[in-house]
Each structure stands twice: as structure tokens, then as C-alpha cells.
């Protein structure tokens, strides 16, 4: 039985959307979003299923910057699960490392006014810009440059939305919706009928300290969970 999404704000508003709660500088989210795109393409579901990105701002949950040592320690481990996703250790000066992802998360939400295609194109491009190219995606001009490079985003409209802050409320509302354990982590995927998976297919733990001190170990990885999720999402489509 389908769960009414109006009764659960975590769920998509229509069966042709897949909600993905993430942060942009989360390595597990970068892996998950890459696998979502690749699986959708391989299954021939492009144009039938869309990714509705929602914000899971780690800096707000943790009351702290997502520390570079923790992020760097994950790259070789998580990156090895999908090398083609685009990974590189930060090469710029420390003072150019993004201290916040809120402006970029806000831009992804603002782009939804242009449709989910524009929003998911910007989300994926921002991830590539940070993880593969080492660009400071907290900066307004970088966000707009990345948006222009997608060829899918009206950059003038996005700049106007960023400048008047119209999507900041959306990011904060999504942060509130995700709170109190209702969204477990970045990434967490939700389908129209309530089916959901947190950090799909991956089980990990930290050794010799927590994030920023120790290092992650992947206990199991099952990429086929993305096939199951998207095939199930396709089964929910009308007709």
C-alpha cells in the first residue's frame, strides 16, 4: 500500500521522484549519488525517474565544520568502491577549503524552481567540482560558474534566488524534517511508498578514533541495492 507523501514530508511528492537526503561534502553521499545516476542510466530509467535532492547539512547537525582530516581519510577507502565517481585529495591552500556547504545546498534547492532536471544536474556538478576538481563550492561565484557549466541551469535566475535567499528556508525546513532520527545519515534514500535505505548497501565503522581522528573501514558493500531501489521505484510508476 502506498504511503500518502503528504503525511510524511520525507517522501517524494510523486512516484516518479526519488528523494535523496545528503550533504555535498559527504564522501558516502558522493558515492551514493554517483551510483544512483549510473544505475538509472543502466536500467534505462532516465526521463522516467528523477532525483529530488534534500539537504542533510552535517554542519548543522554536528555544530561543526565537516573537518578536512575526516573527509580526506575517507577518500581512499570510499573512493575505491567507485573510482570513476571522481575523487582527489584537496590540493589548494587550507584557507580555500569550503568551511560550509549551506550556500551550495541552497543553490540546489533554488534550482528546483527550474525543474528536477536542473536541480539534479547542479547537484551532481557541484559534487564533481568539490571532489574531483577541488573547487571552493561555498563561494557564490564558484556555484554560479558550476551552474553555467551544466548547460541545464538558468544562471541568472539562480543568482537572483541566491541573492534574495529564497531557498534558505527550504534548506532549514529539510534540516528540521531530518532531525530527531527521522533521516539517519547522508545519504538516505526514500521512495514514494515509504521504502527507504540509509547509506544504501554500505556498512562502515571507524577505527582508532571517530571522524577526523581515526579512519573508516568498509565491512560490506552491496551496490545491487541501487538496482533494487530503482526497479521498485519504477514499479510504482502509474500505467
UniProtKB/TrEMBL annotation:
The GO molecular function terms of this record are: isomerase activity
- Per UniProt, residues of the DSBA-like thioredoxin domain are 18-194
Q: Which Pfam families match?
A: DSBA
Q: Which UniProt keywords apply?
A: Isomerase
- State whether keyword Isomerase applies: yes
Q: Which InterPro entries match?
A: DSBA-like_thioredoxin_dom (IPR001853), Thioredoxin-like_sf (IPR036249)
Q: What is this protein called?
A: Dithiol-disulfide isomerase, DsbA family
Amino acid at each position: 500500500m502506498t504511503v500518502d507523501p503528504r503525511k510524511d514530508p520525507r517522501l517524494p511528492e510523486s512516484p516518479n521522484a526519488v528523494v535523496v537526503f545528503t550533504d555535498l561534502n559527504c564522501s558516502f553521499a558522493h558515492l551514493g549519488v554517483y551510483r544512483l545516476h549510473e544505475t538509472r542510466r543502466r536500467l534505462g530509467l532516465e526521463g522516467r525517474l528523477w532525483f529530488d535532492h534534500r539537504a542533510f547539512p552535517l554542519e548543522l547537525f554536528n555544530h561543526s565544520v565537516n573537518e578536512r582530516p575526516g573527509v580526506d581519510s575517507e577518500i581512499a577507502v570510499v573512493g575505491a568502491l567507485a573510482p570513476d565517481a571522481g575523487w582527489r585529495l584537496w590540493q589548494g591552500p587550507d584557507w580555500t577549503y569550503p568551511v560550509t556547504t549551506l550556500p551550495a545546498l541552497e543553490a540546489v534547492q533554488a534550482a528546483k524552481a527550474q525543474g528536477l532536471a536542473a536541480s539534479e544536474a547542479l547537484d551532481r556538478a557541484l559534487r564533481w567540482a568539490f571532489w574531483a576538481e577541488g573547487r571552493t563550492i561555498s563561494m557564490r561565484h564558484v556555484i554560479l560558474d558550476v551552474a553555467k557549466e551544466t548547460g541545464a541551469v538558468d544562471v541568472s535566475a539562480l543568482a537572483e534566488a541566491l541573492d534574495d535567499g529564497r531557498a534558505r528556508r527550504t534548506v532549514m525546513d529539510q534540516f528540521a524534517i531530518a532531525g530527531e532520527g527521522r533521516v539517519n545519515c547522508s545519504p538516505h534514500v526514500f521512495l514514494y511508498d515509504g521504502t527507504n535505505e540509509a547509506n544504501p548497501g554500505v556498512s562502515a565503522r571507524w577505527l582508532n578514533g571517530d571522524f577526523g581522528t581515526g579512519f573508516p573501514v568498509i565491512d560490506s558493500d552491496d551496490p545491487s541495492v541501487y538496482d533494487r531501489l530503482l526497479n521498485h521505484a519504477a514499479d510504482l510508476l502509474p500505467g
